[in-house]
Amino acid sequence: MELHEMEYFVAIAREGNITRAAEKLYVSQPTLTKYLQRVEKEAGLPLFQRAGRRLVPTYAGERYLARAEELLRIGRELDAELADLRQEDSGRLRVGIPPVRCSYSLPAVLPGFRRLHPNVEIRILEEDSERLDAALCAGETDLNFYNLSAQDPRLEYQLLSRDAVCAVLPAGHPAGKSAVQRGDSRELDLSSLTGETFLLQKRTQRQGQYLYELMRRQKVTPARVLETSNIRAAFALAVNGYGVAFLAEGLLRRLDQGQPFDAYRLTGGPSMDFVAAWRKGSYLPAFAQDFIRLMQEV
Predict the structure, then answer these.
(1) How confident is the model at residue 92 (pLDDT cuts 50, 70, 90)?
(2) Could you give the angle at which helices 18-25 and 3-15 cross, rounded to 10 degrees?
(3) What is the C-alpha separation between 211 and 202, in angstroms, rounded?
(4) For 89, what's the count of Cα atoms within 13 Å in the CB-facing half-sphere?
(5) In a 10 Å sphere around its CB, with 0-12 CB exposed, 13-18 middle and 19+ buried, how is residue 240 labelled?
(6) Closest Cα partner for 211 from 147, 138, 139?
(7) CA separation, residue 91 to residues 80, 120, 123, 155, 232 (Å)
(8) Beta-bridge partners for 125
(9) Where are the annotated coiled coils located (predicted)?
(10) If you average pLDDT over residues 116-137, what whole number do you get?
């Protein structure tokens, strides 16, 4: 089977529907139907079964899918390595990044990247960090950028920046009276905020994981918790007095739109590391390394 036919199989498995897979692949539906009939005949057993309107891989189909994804990944990495050896400036880079980071990082990075590598196609996947890890391990992205909580042994990381985490409150909030000045920053104990509503990101997001773990370690229970996946919304709610939000210090500078607020570093809170991540042992072409460098500069 050729690599493009493996792409057919992967698309059917991901879309769960031949029509949608055909649209994604820019081939006709009859072509894809005949392909699936042929490959199942060659395999000697069904590779998909129907679950309502969806096509779901059988156990044999799951094994076939895993191998197809692995071979496609190897093929892409070989193409990238050979292009480097030929000094060709072409290829495709699939980048995973959380939505808020995407909103301010990519406008600063992509124009410069295109000047360096005008023939490299960029594809962006915006998801929370947990889903991005799954996509990277499945070969759906080549590079991820996010805050790191726990390292995955299947991945390699490069540290791009290290940030303190801050509690965000409306300007003049009484909790600020217990803040302690240390150097050029003010610090606040998490326990001094227990009477507040905590505006937390979900547990699939790195900042949410960070805060839930910090609350557990410091044995802090807030009065109420409001979870939102939207970091900008959490910031705006805190600035307008609804509760206390927790954000990386560098991110605060990006979200500040002139409305007054107070921010305090959390006493005893570990730093939050922003990293580039890729599959362990995978080949990073020169253009991917340039993308990492540009993200670090931002």
Answers:
(1) confident
(2) 130
(3) 10
(4) 8
(5) exposed
(6) 147
(7) 7, 5, 11, 22, 34
(8) 96
(9) none
(10) 91
